Amino acid sequence: MVLVSVLLPSYNHEKFIAETIESVLAQTIKDLEFIIIDDFSSDRSTEIIKKYQEKDDRIKFLVHRENIGISKTENELLNMAKGKYVAFLNSDDVWDKQKIEKQLKVLERDENLIIWTEGEIIDENSKLIGMKFTEKHGASRKKKSGNIFEELLYNNFIFFASLLFKRENLGDLRFNEKLNIINDFQFEVALAENYDYFFISEPLAKYRVHDYNTIFLENKVPIRKEYFFIFKLFLEKYSEKIPKKLKLYIYQKIIDLSISLANKSEIRSKSYNPFKIDPFRFIYNIKQEKIKNILFLRQKRKIYRYLAQIQPKSLKKFILALTIVLRCNKVSRNLNFWINFILFLLK
Length: 347
Description:
Number of domains: 2
CATH class of the largest domain: Alpha Beta
Structural class: alpha/beta
């Protein structure tokens, strides 16, 4: 059995793919297979990859006849992998030549750990911009090793191209093929549900920023739709495992994204009830009536923000929330809302 399977999905990165491939072939650990699948690139990516394949028989290269998306491509790569351990990288990222070697040393102590490392941010010309990956993703002070399942549910701060993990531990786990931008988020959370992570603070990989990666898509509709989908999935799947505070945070994210996308007519809202009693249901009901009044939208935002902070002993916050609710006739006349609201306060 080969020791490590390096899996690379390629798509329209002719400017970067050569540097990416060379960083894998330069690894100090030579016992690896390097599987590359090009997802029907329209540039010179396939031509460049074939030249490297001719020089190194560790490279296995496939080309799709049509574009099927990143998640399906990564699942295909996983199904082809034969190594004891698996590592992914994107076709615009770069590894330090000792990345795999240093990660394997950690796995000698516990081969079931999910190993990830710090990363450096580089630009289109491979120049360092002076920022670390965890800093860019607001994770400098977050817990990065051990059981980080709940930490990851708040937001994704894992450098996906730095991961190394045991293939056998995946079982049937695969990437969600409904996601094509932040598909790694759900995948990493699923790993964290069952296995501990280990963080190497040394930057052993480089994350490239350019016009088309997710750092620049945070406020775009497609990525917000995927976050909306993921946070709903988290509530449905993990509701019984996580504390109420975290459920409330995820629910707030759903509402924020729902309001934002509803304003752009991108989604039709549905009611979700992670607390069994749901004082926020009215937000979805009102939005389904397609009310476009800007002031009313502001009121709705204020309502859920105040409700989110309410504690049974906090009279001031209760009065503030109640005052805003009373201003919304469509809400205050809804008997179900008042029943749920009171139950929420008493719980």
